[in-house]
Amino acid sequence: MMFDPYASQRAMRQMRRAAMQRGVIAALDVGTYKIAAVVLRLDPAASALDEPGIGNMAGQAAFRVIGAGTTRSSGVRYGEVSAMAETERAIRTALQAAQKMAQARVDHVMVCLSGGNPRSYGLAGEIDLEEPVVSENDIARVMSACDMPDFGAGREVLHAQPINFALDHRTGLSDPRGQTGRNLACDMHLVTVDASLIQNICNALKRCDVELAGIASSAYASGMSALVEDEQELGAACVDLGAGTSNVSIFMKKHMIYADCVRMGGSHVTSDISKGLQIDFAMAERIKTVHGGVQATSMDDRDMIALTGDSGDWDKDRRRVSRAELIGIMRPRIEEILEEVRARLDAAGFTHLPSQQVVLTGGAAQVPGLDGLAARIFGQQVRLGRPVRVRGLPQAASGQAFSSVVGLSLLATHPQDEWWDFEMPVENYPARSLKRAVKWFKDNW
Fold first, then answer.
1. Does 149 have pLDDT greater than 80?
2. How many whole angstroms from its chain centre is CA 135?
3. What would the DSSP string read from start to end of 205-237?
4. Is the pTM for the entire model greater than 0.90?
5. Which domain holds residue 124?
6. pLDDT tens digit string along 247-293?
7. Residue (of 54, 309, 265, 275) closest to 173 by Cα position
8. Is residue 39 in a domain?
9. Tally of domains within the chain
């Protein structure tokens, strides 16, 4: 019997379906600054959970948020686990808070990850049809005809989505099944991440006694939440400015066609303030949140901020700095992050898209004046994106910092089709892709 490289992904899909039938599933965002969990209650009277159709989120299963929990992240750096016991404790705290509010036990969790050095690949495959009408089997065959790239050891596939089909000379098809033709081609988008990131998150969730029902990239989840339908269709970039990482995704025709990550975020700005003003990290975070900005005016020279401390040195503990000085520390780092994001977008060919809207979201996007600075750096239209409104979401969890977990809720209730949702004909697997096949977690998961 030949090894099926995507058995574990299919197993997670089965877990998700089991959760859907139970009517309760949790979405978990494991970030550098906070860990957020929401519990979703599925509407049993909703339309079918897995509607026919490839790729597009034509509609979503009706759901309601019945519980939400947030805790300060611990043991996570750059979106990756650095201390397992601390991460487990923080995940458990967030999940317990959400379950307590929901008054329901959750056994299945979907998680979104930042970090892991995501890399994007565009794949193409083409087959001649055996029958004149395109069938489900033909979709599986054309996907298996895509030649897997050599993404190296220690990397695992996180997403593998068909983003475009072409039948004979007609392209731009989202679902060619049932149509007549002779030649079928497919374009796919593949995202890989470091295997250790996924393994560590799986181990942490296992220690929390919950089943993993799916994994998604934070860049993907944020884009699904913060971009409106027109932006997803015409082409837009979503920049999720988190604490440890800034995730970048580009959407076109309602599909993610590029994902990347910059290993800098809001905590680096806080660190600069802490070092520059010689204050502790917690106070630097508070000052950044209350008084921060990127555009200094003449009034900011006179707007003084008190720095209180408990070092025992009276002069040091009773210092005052101007807001202009604070902005002078924050702006260079924020400019550096946005310049790095622009370099990633340029490398991805974003300037060639018909629409070049850039949407900023994430907790670090709440700095006043950031959209104006970003518009100058990107040279494009820039807006601040808030997550879409979902039923039952508490007001405290509806800000930009919660775009990832809200987007993950949408993906949990109506995921886009991926490679492993189709029964691949084993004899059609390219030999190379079998050799580089991906093992998702240990056999005892």
1. yes
2. 32
3. HHHTT-EEEEEEEHHHHHHHHHS-HHHHHH-EE
4. no
5. 119-193
6. 999 999 999 999 999 999 999 999 999 999 999 999 999 999 999 99
7. 54
8. no
9. 2
